[in-house]
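Think of the structure tokens as a kind of shorthand, similar to the way a musician reads notation: each symbol stands for something richer, in this case the local conformation of the backbone. In the example below we present two proteins back to back. Begin with the first one, reading the sequence and then the tokens, and try to describe in your own words what changes along the chain.
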Amino acid sequence: MHTSVIPPEVAVQGGINSLGIRGKRPQGTPECTLCLVTMILNELRRELKQRRRRLPPDYRARASAQIATRIRQLPVLRRAHHIAGYIPCRGEADPLAAIRSAQRQHIYLPVLHPFLSRKLIFAPWTATTRLQPNRYNIPEPDVAWQHCIRPERLDVVLTPLLGFDAQLNRLGMGGGYYDRTFAFRRYCRHWPRPYLLGIAFSEQQCETLPVTPRDIPLDAVVTPDTLFLPDSEIHNNAHAN
């Protein structure tokens, strides 16, 4: 497990303080606290990027294959009709092997929203779909936005991440695209879709992550050797068995 650089005074311990950060309120002014949290997250991102880059290519390929096997075995994926993946970049775990051969399911990839800042829509994708780089040099399907779908229509989203913890909190690259795109889940409790499935190498796990009200937690995280679920779901599964 990755050892977090987060000091105890901003560790996640329940409750939300006046700054919107879950956990104990650090000493000092709000401005200082916000700067501290930002510095912590930026440092953690740097560490996790370096850790992921150091993973050998053959290890990443082998671990991605193990992740794909686990994904294919999930009932939530087998029941899904509309599934979003992503093109792996900068050493990310590759989820496409799990969905590339889907026959009765529709597969999509994220595309920068053409009108709304820092949001995503999802373009249909097959192995023959032409890709083009977006402004971040991330490949996207070369598909007119009129043929894309809104995130509410997806059943499962294979979600990239830099880091995660056992409470299913997610640390992304810092742009906030996924949090803004799926922010509707915070207000629509009756709308269970889509199921956000984090995809990660085991080395990306952190002890704890600071969380703000803007952050959208994951429903599960899959690594090469573990499926992380909410405590309630783990309890229910154990009771059922």
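Once you have a description of the first chain, move to the second and do the same.
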Amino acid sequence: MSVFKYIIALLFFINVIDCISQVAISDTDFDKIEQKKIREFLIEEQNNNIELFADIKPTMQPNSETEGYKTHVKEYFLKDSLNKIWQLYVNTNPGDSWDGKKVSFGLMYSNKDKKVVYRNEHISHLDTGLVVFLNLKLLKGIINLPAVFEFITIDKVKRIIEFSYVDGNITKGKQRLQFAETAKGYTRILHTSFYKSGSSIRDRILYPYFHEKVSNEFHRNMKRLYFSQQLN
């Protein structure tokens, strides 16, 4: 066998193994997903011929242009070192950080590990390719919406975390958490959201209002987890 044929055969074999190892959405244990809207999102994906979790794609990449997107920015502060707070955010299980009255965690899928992780299961750290499925409870639960995003950037040097809404969400865009040290040696987190949808009313009024409430709860959870770690 020539070298060329050997390489082709090897690439074909690798591709076959990769396809076999992919996780189908139809293999999801729906009994482990509490939130109806998340179950419906997954079913709708299948109806749109999205058969594998790996076929769920982010609407933005790290270097995507943000022109044409609306922007929402807010600062958060924690009184500890930059390195310590960065480690807190990247090493906290999403099932713990996205768990509150307004947001509940459904499941997540790791594109790198090709593994589904349900509620009350854990991962050790955030990584790119991790897709998280959340349920948003708006107006005290009168309205429930699925929010699904993929982590697209974990930059340990620039201290940036980015996650993008995936196709199938009402909103397209991404959120960025940028960590920096303050003059007093504490940590500032700049939370920026780039977003757009098909509704100008939603983009101008509804998204900023509800997004800030959800973001505030997320960062409060992280602060609570921080203090819990200090006590232990």
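Compare your description with these statements about the second chain. The longest helix spans residues 200-231.
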